[in-house]
């Protein structure tokens, strides 16, 4: 085993203390990635996280409300042109019931995620948010419902939603264009993120690791984006191909690079809420535990009705599609305890 060079160790130390590197510094850390350097970064990431969040792992109850989507993103299993998907949409009463079940299990953050389904217009979705807030006291309602206009975001915020997750997918406009249809634009995605922040949401962004056509320069730009925008939440996970998309034969992103980037993001912004994603658990049986040990502090078990979970398939072989909500939460709690962490079901707001 060869230890990282003094120059690389100095870069890690600088990032840990200043939370900033120039592009050359990020490039050097990415180009010289090694198991030893990854271990050093993970140690520093945990050191950065613990004064703020300790050993707590915040749990978000995820409800996948619809797999109907107007968009045709080339990597996504529920893209509009995939005719093999059995489409579904949860009724408002069902969504509120799922949220209430999660609340009774102890969850104090509920995440509503879905495709860009026109059924969930402002009045419908806003009413669902309002009902969840009324029936689940002291619960943070998080939305992940794609691109909407600023007035829509304001309406949902006024209804009681406090967080919004909108992965930017890539910080490079040209790369974005290779992953999405011409009807979608990187500029509009970035405008949505700015609108969300100005409205008052805690804003989550994020990107795919190892997505088709991704280069090291793109990853430098991702790190620069995190440093500049400072998302309250940053969801990164490995790209995993879906068999019914144009990228079906593309290689998946790797566990090692995802963990490495989790550590870098934690050092760039120590306060960030950083999930160990389901995709990470899909490519490695202990992926979520390894994510925690690399600097993550959030997991998102599924509260969707078991009957529809297999239909919300953004990528192949997604885990936890058959578990009941309580079973899923209990399994995660045990997994976290085994590595010395503890599940926290409180709201888990960002601490600044």
Please explain how this structure is put together.
This protein is α/β, with parallel strands linked by helices. It has one domain (6-344): TIM Barrel. Helices cover 45% and strands 12% of the residues. The chain has 14 helices and eleven strands. The strands form three sheets. A six-stranded parallel beta sheet has the order 2-3-4-5-6-8. α6 (150-159) links the parallel β4 (140-144) and β5. α1 runs parallel beside α3, α4 runs parallel beside α5 and α5 runs parallel beside α6 (150-159). The radius of gyration is 19 Å and the shape is globular.
Q: Could you give a short description of this structure?
A:
With 352 residues, the protein is an alpha/beta fold. It has helices at residues 6-18, 23-31, 35-53, 92-104, 122-135, 150-159, 173-179, 186-199, 216-229, 255-268, 278-283, 287-293, 306-309, 325-338, and strands at 56-59, 61-66, 109-114, 140-144, 161-165, 202-205, 208-209, 233-234, 237-238, 298-299, 342-344.
Task: Give the secondary structure arrangement, pairings included.
Blueprint: H1 6-18, H2 23-31, H3 35-53, E1 56-59, E2 61-66, H4 92-104, E3 109-114, H5 122-135, E4 140-144, H6 150-159, E5 161-165, H7 173-179, H8 186-199, E6 202-205, E7 208-209, H9 216-229, E8 233-234, E9 237-238, H10 255-268, H11 278-283, H12 287-293, E10 298-299, H13 306-309, H14 325-338, E11 342-344
Parallel strand pairs: 1-10, 1-11, 2-3, 3-4, 4-5, 5-6, 6-8, 7-9
């Amino acid at each position: 085993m060869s230890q990282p060079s003094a120059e690389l160790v100095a870069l890690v130390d600088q990032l840990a203390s200043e939370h900033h590197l120039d592009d050359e510094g990020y490039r050097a850390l990415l180009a010289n990635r090694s198991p030893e350097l990854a271990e050093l970064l993970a140690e520093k990431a945990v050191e950065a996280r613990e004064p703020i969040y300790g050993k707590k792992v915040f749990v978000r109850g995820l409800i996948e409300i619809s797999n109907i989507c107007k968009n045709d993103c080339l990597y996504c299993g529920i893209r509009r042109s995939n005719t093999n998907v059995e489409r579904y949409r949860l009724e408002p009463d069902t969504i509120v019931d799922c949220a209430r079940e999660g609340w009774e299990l102890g969850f104090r953050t509920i995440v509503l995620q879905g495709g860009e389904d026109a059924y969930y217009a402002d009045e419908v979705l806003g009413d669902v948010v309002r009902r969840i807030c009324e029936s689940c006291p002291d619960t943070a309602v998080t939305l992940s419902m794609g691109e909407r206009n600023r007035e829509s975001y304001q309406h949902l915020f006024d209804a009681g939603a406090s967080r919004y997750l909108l992965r930017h997918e890539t910080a490079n406009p040209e790369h974005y264009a290779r992953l999405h249809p011409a009807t979608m634009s990187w500029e509009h995605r970035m405008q949505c993120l700015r609108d969300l922040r100005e409205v008052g949401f805690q804003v989550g962004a994020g990107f795919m690791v190892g997505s088709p056509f991704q280069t090291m320069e793109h990853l430098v730009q991702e790190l620069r984006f995190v440093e500049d925008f400072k998302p309250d939440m940053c969801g990164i996970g490995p790209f995993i191909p879906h068999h019914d998309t144009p990228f079906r034969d593309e290689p998946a992103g790797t566990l090692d690079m995802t963990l490495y980037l989790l550590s870098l993001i934690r050092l760039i912004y120590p306060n960030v809420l950083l999930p160990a994603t389901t995709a990470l658990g899909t490519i490695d049986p202990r992926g979520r535990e390894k994510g925690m040990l690399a600097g993550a502090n959030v997991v998102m078990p599924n509260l969707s009705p078991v009957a529809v979970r297999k239909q919300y398939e953004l990528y192949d072989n997604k885990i936890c599609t058959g578990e009941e909500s309580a079973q899923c939460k209990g399994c995660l709690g045990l997994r976290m305890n085994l590595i010395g962490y503890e599940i926290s079901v409180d709201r888990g707001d960002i601490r600044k």
